[in-house]
């Protein structure tokens, strides 16, 4: 009940921030240079054509009217119509979000597991060779340009070794996968399509590896630091002094206390991973949300830019909210 | 046990201090080498960064071209050296501008408080509702990609974090007795801010700024990779990687692997420097 009230209050606090995001993006795309109409009509369009197109998308209306129309649409769940493709922005997002979610969720899952295992191991072997190796690797991972790492993995995994499929597409079209959610691996599993599952998995390995390597680095560093802090904390030292068994120490004292600090960190890392996802999708021609948003941005497709910015901001703040709730559940000391 | 404690703490602090020095020296050395190579580039290569070799595109590394040529027939080694000028220059200038702007905002918000603080911090909230790279992407796509614009983009996306950081420090410093003494002795608001509050609120900024410069390089290279930052033919590592990316599928490594490697090493230099400064600050606090 307390948690429900907390979530409710936080959701209310989100409204002004998101409203600010909406106003800011709406103004920015219109004030700054670039014209969506010119990019769809091409160089030979007459001024009359341009005026007609402008009227069709309501761009001839006064700014305040345009904004109120847009806001009215948002309230009823209508994100507008893409100027580039002429289709509903909401439908396009539905199509593009699945592949991106698949990529991000898998990469974050891999990164979390690796970060916890390696981070705790490293802390327990602090200041020995293995620990130094892990720390150096994390530092390198933290400095890694993800788009370049993706290219290097393609060079090695596809061009040299030939173990993985070419970086185009997400599943072999010959496998006749029926799309349900857009997340190909999930769709293949749901429709019991074995060949498609294998193909989707093969296509996923390199981009997921790229994304997890850059995501794991900051996580690993923090897990190690907090595990180290727990190892030196009074409760842990007391537990060791009482001669508790290693397994009890590890599970009951070290892991739980270390994990309690993880959610807020994971949320922060999720934020950086959104930026990396745009780059990784670009490298692997993933055709996900990131590439769609990037194209919208390049063509000044106002409704697409507005919607994608809003979606990203929304995901970002909601993930922070989820992190706070998980933290409260894991750590009884947190008051919400 | 308690008798031993102080000594171990001192030994630990001394070791941490030495380790911090190693990190700082290594990081600075890496950055110095890259910067120096960029400055004396004309001495290290006979090719200009945008000079086209009429004899061939995508020539593999060999005697004439130590790292081969790219798809435009430009010498990769030469471009690699010259690129440091733009990459380091834009990142460092952008972060410096972010520090100045963010510090000024944080100082005003934290010291004045009230509605000024409220308004500034709500604006910061909106900026921080986005991941940095996404924000940089959006702003860069909208304002266009001159060198000055890119510096402004780096500054704009990083300034909010400094504003928040400095504001938090200022709010603590503001309450200290030396500030109160200065105010009661009739010093002007500006005088108090400049002489007392500012110098005592900059510690976290000094630690964060080098790390930030490393991320700024990654941001810049990422933008260029997507075609929204520095564009070919100008020599910049991200743009070089972008130009070389189609070659990777054909197994040609020399157009995109070297620039990424140098970028990685350079960012690592900033990371080591920042890490060292952080360790030193922590060792001092103990």
Most extensive chain-chain interface: A-B, 49 and 44 residues
Low-pLDDT runs of 5+ residues of chain B are: 1-9
Mean pLDDT of chain B: 86
Range of helix content of chain B: over 70%
* CATH T-level fold name of the domain at 99-300 in chain A: MetI-like fold
In total, the number of strands of chain B is 0
| Straight-line N-to-C gap of chain B | 19 Å
Write the layout of secondary structure elements.
The complex is a heterodimer of chains A (336) and B (286).
Chain A: H1 2-31, H2 36-41, H3 47-56, H4 63-75, H5 89-124, H6 129-142, H7 146-160, H8 184-190, H9 194-231, H10 234-241, H11 246-259, H12 262-283, H13 289-298, H14 302-330
Helix pairs in contact in A: 1-14, 5-6, 5-9, 5-12, 6-9, 7-9, 7-12, 8-9, 9-11, 9-12, 12-13, 12-14, 13-14
Chain B: H1 5-39, H2 41-44, H3 76-112, H4 114-127, H5 132-143, H6 147-174, H7 177-184, H8 189-200, H9 203-225, H10 237-249, H11 257-285
Helix pairs in contact in B: 1-3, 1-11, 3-4, 3-6, 3-9, 4-6, 5-6, 6-9, 7-8, 9-10, 9-11, 10-11
Keywords (chain A): Cell membrane, Membrane, Transmembrane, Transmembrane helix, Transport
Pfam families (chain A): BPD_transp_1, BPD_transp_1_N
Transmembrane segments (chain A): 12-32, 103-126, 147-166, 200-220, 265-284, 304-330
